[in-house]
Amino acid sequence: MNLLINKSWSPYWVGAGIGMLSWFAFVSADHPIGVTTAFEHTAALALKTAAPVVEQSNEYFARKSAEGQPPKIDWEWMLVVGVFLGAFASSHLSGDRDKVVVPKLWEHRFGPSAPLRLVVAFFAGALMMFGARLAQGCTSGHGISGTMQLAASSWLFITVAFVVATITTFLLFGKGDSHHV
Amino acid sequence: MFDAPEKLALGLITGIIFGFLLQKGHVAKYEVIVGQFLFTDWTVVKTMGTAVVVGAVGVYALVFADLASLHIRPLLFGGVIFGAVCFGAGMAILGYCPGTSVAGCGEGRRDAMVGVLGMFTGAILFVLLFPKLQPVINGLGDGGKVTLPELTSTAPWLWVSALVIGGLVAFAITNLRSNRLRKTSVPPRPSESAFVSPTATQRE
Q1: What is the SS3 assignment for B142?
Q2: Which residue is closest to A177 within chain B, CA to CA?
Q3: Alpha-carbon B92 to chain mean position
Q4: ipTM score assigned to the predicted complex
Q5: CA distance B160 to chain A (A)
């Protein structure tokens, strides 16, 4: 029980846990761990419900059905729900909860404005997800599940994404701010 | 519309463990992710690196034993490269990746919650623009659903062994260095601790 109320575990143990969880996912569900396909499926189902005509007008739906991957509430969709619940439980057990709106490092660089942080977070989230769906994977689907399978696409993705993220971060914060982290 | 109930339950259980691990590993925190890209906090690389090494050994052993099959995403150069550029920029600005955004919501983080709303909007845009995006995704050619061993006509175990050895060497170097630092015990400069959260201090 003590372990469960600890605020942090070693990154090596957490990493090993995620690696072994991947074995479990492959054997039990024949599915690599991933997150963003569920967002795409939710978006497609929402669009279909809001405007049924889109199912005929947008080739997305016919293409995905032909590929045997029509949008649905599936294993990965429940995995995303689980990630929320697991983090919720973990943070409540340890008391490591943070209702932060403007992170300290952000505030140091861009000021305490909540609207600024939230508007930027919204658009950055949209850009990130758009990119993940273009590439068909994110930090989980490509960065962890794909690279462990030695997928060429995943090693290319995570290399480019990491380089671009580093450049973006240094453009945002500059070298001078790095010691504030 | 729905997977079988037992498969949904399996997904939920896997997700709960995944979210629990992400939260305990502190990777659902803005400062930890941005700190990685500033090279001041190596939690993300340590966590991902270990996951990939441990995962690769098991998954290739399972495939060898015919207990699992690989699920490789296609090497569509346009989609992967343009996608990675948008993804990397978005993640650096948001300060969470998709999985850790969701875990960050579970931790109570308000900016991650708004980030998830943005992510949903990005997914809607992707589906709406899907027909028009095809030239971008397929424009630079398709390498197929290929692995690095297949691409180089080498044995997978060579690559898995290289990952394991590389991981152990990186682990040894990092820990030798931090042990030496601990022995010399240089007190941190005041500026360094200025923005360290209480939880990060405890982690040390």
Answers
A1: strand
A2: B38
A3: 13
A4: 0.95
A5: 8
